[in-house]
Amino acid sequence: MRLNEYRILWILVFFDLPTETKKDRKLYTKFRKDLMEDGFAMFQFSIYLRHCSSRENADVHIKRVKKALPPKGHVGILTVTDKQFGMIELFYGKDEKKLPDTPQQLELF
User: Fold this and answer.
1) Which of 35, 80, 81, 92 lies 20 to 30 Å from 10, alpha-carbon distance?
2) How many helices (H) and strands (E) does the chain have?
3) DSSP three-state, residue 30
4) What is the pTM of this model?
């Protein structure tokens, strides 16, 4: 199947984790670190995103996020197509910002 803006996906992970105790902060840090090691980038403080070339690829990364879930807190996982993500409007204050570039990925079959 050829790649197009409806097949390419973005995974967004939203989370609100407790940080009251030293153990909570350690679990929070480990979860963030696991996301970044799996190729997620920070979009906002508690929102990370990752570009995936297909549904199958996205499923692999979603499983990794689920495996890394901490015992407490709220985590949401949202998958949108590249076409949907491309319609986002970003603002810093009242100034509109350009969308982040789609990462270039090399795939070997």
Assistant:
1) 92
2) 3, 6
3) helix
4) 0.82
In order of their start, the domains of the chain are 9-96 (3.30.70.240)
Is the backbone of residue 45 left (phi > 0), alpha (psi -120 to 50) or beta?
alpha
Neighbours of 91 (CB within 10 A): 8
Which pLDDT does position 109 carry in this prediction?
Answer: 46
Q: How far apart are the first and last CA of the chain?
A: 13
pLDDT along the chain (109 residues), means of 10: 75 97 97 97 95 94 97 97 90 77 55
Annotated binding site for Mg(2+): 16
Residue reference for tokens 């920070």: 42
Sign of CA dihedral 52, 106, 5, 43: positive
Please give the structure tokens belonging to residue 41. 């980038």
